[in-house]
Amino acid sequence: MNIGVDLGGTNIRVAVMDDNGIIIEELGCPTEAENGPLPAIEKIIAMIQSLQEKHAVRSVGIGAPGPLDAKKGIIIEPPNLSSWKNIELTKMIESAIHLPVYLENDANAAALAEALIGAGKEAESVFYITVSTGIGGGYVYNGKLISGAQGNCGEIGNMIVDPHAIDAPNLNKGALEALASGTAIGRKAESVFGPGHGAKEVFLFAQEGNQEAAEIIDEALSYLAMGIANIVHTLNPEVIVLGGGVMKSKDLMLDPLKEKVVPLLYPSLRPHLKLKLASLDQKAGVVGAGMIPRQFLQN
Amino acid sequence: MNIGVDLGGTNIRVAVMDDNGIIIEELGCPTEAENGPLPAIEKIIAMIQSLQEKHAVRSVGIGAPGPLDAKKGIIIEPPNLSSWKNIELTKMIESAIHLPVYLENDANAAALAEALIGAGKEAESVFYITVSTGIGGGYVYNGKLISGAQGNCGEIGNMIVDPHAIDAPNLNKGALEALASGTAIGRKAESVFGPGHGAKEVFLFAQEGNQEAAEIIDEALSYLAMGIANIVHTLNPEVIVLGGGVMKSKDLMLDPLKEKVVPLLYPSLRPHLKLKLASLDQKAGVVGAGMIPRQFLQN
């Protein structure tokens, strides 16, 4: 059995699971990132140790927000874990629990779970895209996570889809994340509906038939469609799985998105497009984290 | 020993090579595509048979222009093999030579050769980009060609980098190939320097210090840099290898291209960019074709 740790900006989830990714027992607590890394790491260790007492755990996988150095097990400086800077996370936890600990980007961990036991199950190749505050992704081929030379595979939020579009901090001009993320939709909401309005209101208004809200969503989907078409022409994955809070509404998002992607593909690829909603929901992160150790053992 | 066949719009090359991709003997002839597929296929068979008589050949790999169906061994309808339409190429050749025959996209074949014994040798992951009449590519991970669910991995010519840019036939609006290929440079050359001028003149004029020619190249390189940055953020390959006629000039192309790609990458990725010129030149196609059979045997 392995333990998966989903280290988020708000919550930490720790779960012990069998080799099929079935969760046997799960613990959780708030991250309280504002208190710095040490208290949070102590809580992770305590939760792992309490699970170790009851279960025969072989190894631990952690999914955490980037940027991070997966190979060295270091959290570099994630925007949503402020004051975490060059933290040797795997080393610190390993020395306390005496088991091998592995680290991966949280989107990569979720990609692994969705590819192996979620919406991409049984496909040879799966590209996972998460659309929430930011846009990220992960690529799983033949059951293996392709992590990339510096662990940055799937950083599609920075993909340029419109070099004439707006600037956004820490991103390329016209990057996908600046145009199609929840943050991008929220920014548009504020400029159209006034301060205090965000992505949530846009979806609410659109469902009520508001034309301006529908246009905001339509623009974001148009850019997302370009990003997806670019991934298809670059990698031709068998299945593309869409997760993240923004994608939740099938009627409002997935179906219109499909309609926009198809005409952007080479004609021979159009009938083969498989765009699916993620099926593991909130669990993808912690389950995928628990699957990371096996990835290394297979190498 | 294996045989590689490089089936091009102008010439056919057939070579027998050892397991290291070293060519032992090579034959060639013009394709004469205008005569239709049958005479060309007969010439391929005759060349293979003449090599079979002298060498212990185990299998044959063919690199051919897309679109094609690699798994079924069918040439679908390539623009530069007009009148070839749904040709069951591997079946036709297999029945004549009684050896297993494998088919791959020509850019994928070249990618394999450059990754295994060319400029990407010893890298874990290599993305190969060819910039000539069109723009294509291929992705090799851990020594294996990632072909894609429908064999369309590396079709980056259709990647959207500027949705406000010009339309081009059979491509997305603002596709990389429409903005940065030899054809795109040639089209600009005609509009700036008048009919009869093409990409060749642009490079000549630029080398002589002509400002307008330099601007045409600069614009193509800017778009190519966006395409490369998009590939880096999608796949984070260890090495990117650039082949094709347009990339030949290191001073004019590779060095300025590097300068344009670096600022488009996440800061942590900038020091790691490895952009290299292809090293096998014209041979990549036929050598890579000869390496295709081994890819299937390894599966």
Which keywords apply here?
homodimer; 299 residues; alpha/beta; Nucleotidyltransferase, domain 5; 2 domains; 5-stranded mixed beta sheet; 9 helices
Protein described:
Chain A has 299 residues and is α/β, with parallel strands linked by helices. The first copy, chain A, folds into two domains: 104 residues, ATPase, nucleotide binding domain (Nucleotidyltransferase, domain 5), CATH 3.30.420; 159 residues, Nucleotidyltransferase, domain 5 (2-Layer Sandwich). Helix content of chain A is 39%, strand content 20%. Chain A contains nine helices and twelve strands. In chain A, strands 3-2-1-4-7 form a five-stranded mixed beta sheet. A five-stranded mixed beta sheet of chain A has the order 10-9-8-11-12, sandwiched between helices. In chain A, strand 2 and strand 3 form a beta hairpin. In chain A, helix 5 crosses helix 6 and helix 5 packs antiparallel against helix 7. The radius of gyration of chain A is 19 Å and the shape is globular. Chain A starts with a strand and ends with a helix. The model of chain A has no long low-confidence stretch (mean pLDDT 94). At the A-B interface, strand 9 and helix 7 of A face strand 9 and helix 7 of B. Chains A, B: This is ROK family protein. Chains A, B: It comes from Metabacillus hrfriensis.
